[in-house]
Amino acid sequence: MHDNSTYHDLIDRFHQKHVLVIGDLILDVYLKGASTRLSPEAPVAIVDVAEKIPLLGGSANTVCNLRTLGASVTYCTVTGNDAEGDTALRLLNNIGVQARTIIRHPNRDTVVKTRVVAGSHVITRFDCGTQTPIDHGTVLQLIAHIESNFHQYDAVIISDYDKGVITAPLLEAINRLREQHPVFLAVDSKRLPFFASLQPDLIKPNYDEAVKLLDLESRSTARVEQLMAEGERLTAKTQAKLIAATLDHDGSLFFENGESVYHAHAPAVASPQVAGAGDTFLSAITLAYASGGDIPHSAEIASAAAAIAVSKESTSSCAAAELKNWFYGKAKFIHSLADLGSLCENYRAQGKRIVFTNGCFDILHSGHVTYLHCARELGDVLVVGINTDESIKRLKGESRPINALADRIQVLSGLSTIDHIIPFGDAHDDTPVPVIKVVRPNVFVKGGDYTKDKLPEAAAVEENGGEIVFIPQIPDQSTTAIIRRISTTTASAPTLTMANS
């Protein structure tokens, strides 16, 4: 078991890193709807499209993952000067990536992969766009963009989907630049021998790519054992210093200079959506290495990031706050408002409804459990604010709380209805207003003993478009009543004395 503080330290350094990504931009488009009948022209399903969702794919998904993990990114690619290219640049701008190093080519069409989805099932996929190698003039333009700040990058990722951007002259230029300014280089490609001249620091073949490269028979079982003996051959064919072979549910195998050095197990994920998982893995492990991580820590960070991404719908990414929370032992306790804000931004991007409530939760009783269950039913995610010990003393007197903050958090964490817990309250403000401004809940829940005019946080909720819901209290269920009953019982109990022997 690794020390979680090491993981947190590494992840905290991600935002200090500047990564150059070179590769093929792909626009992933999802046409989502319902299918209830077959076409009269052919035995195929008719999908009534309800929404069209464009997402960043290919190397652009690697860019997206690096950004959500906190890094700064420069993106060098070529796309069409078309409506699809406009959409891709808008999506990149939304995540803080500038277009100045992206070449818009008038004679190329942006590569688009369109998936038709009925319910949760992909019915078909159709691809379009220019996939021939870029011309010599465009190669020179791209090299100029890559050269401009090469010495400033902490890492370089080549994300090759063989759509025409990565060419031999481009590799020669990168080799020259690395001789002048050595920098960590990671490569992800289905044609890894093409990159052997670069002697990459890291490559990331998946299982199918690895067995094809080695001319081995593909297996459904014992895949780890099959590849574990192939480190030397993989290294000889790719000239990579470190190889991370990803085997989906079998985890990932790491080879260093031809030797098998680590096996990271894959966390179990129900109904994984695997599109783009490799991009998440590559982004996380590159940042972990650039931040000073060793193989085991970097491998576990990459595995966790990929597991988080595949648990979401469509082409997804992993936020740094999600990753940190994973290494709190998937604990529900969030240590900072910044981390909670990042998590909530991610939930909003997924279209999830956030519910927030708060309280002391000093002695947890059935009234609390019912209340929290009802709150959770109002949305997809329940965030609970809990008063600090000092806050409770200010509000309820020096005799409270009965249970310290750490104990109260541990008890609340045992409830499946709660997704995240964060403490609040200081000498300047004992209300949850600062938390509400970060969470921006869709629903704010309070007990039926409150009214809107008694809530100083009401304005903060409504300013962000949230609604306030009051849940009726269960009679005779309160912490104060429990303490009173205990005090009464203790006071009336007979005193026993021991006779001298």
Characterise the protein shown here.
The chain has 18 helices and 18 strands. It is α/β, with parallel strands linked by helices. Strands 5-4-1-8-9-10-11-12-13 form a nine-stranded mixed sheet, sandwiched between helices. The longest helix has 16 residues. The two termini are 54 Å apart.
Provide the β-strand percentage band: 15-25%
The protein's oligomeric status is: single chain
How many strand units?
Answer: 18
Cα(first) to Cα(last) distance is 54 Å
Low-confidence stretches: none
User: Which CATH class of the largest domain applies here?
Assistant: Alpha Beta
The CATH topology of the largest domain is given as: UDP-N-acetylmuramoyl-L-alanine:D-glutamate ligase
Tell me the radius of gyration.
27 Å
Q: Which secondary-structure class do the elements indicate?
A: alpha/beta
Give the biggest sheet. 9 strands, mixed
Shape: globular
Average predicted local confidence, pLDDT: 89
| Share of helix, binned | 25-40%
Overall number of structural domains: 2
Largest sheet, spatial ordering of strands: 5-4-1-8-9-10-11-12-13
What name goes with the CATH superfamily of the largest domain? Ribokinase
CATH architecture of the largest domain: 3-Layer(aba) Sandwich
Q: Which short descriptors sum up this protein?
A:
single chain, UDP-N-acetylmuramoyl-L-alanine:D-glutamate ligase, Rossmann fold, nine-stranded mixed sheet, 18 helices, 18 strands
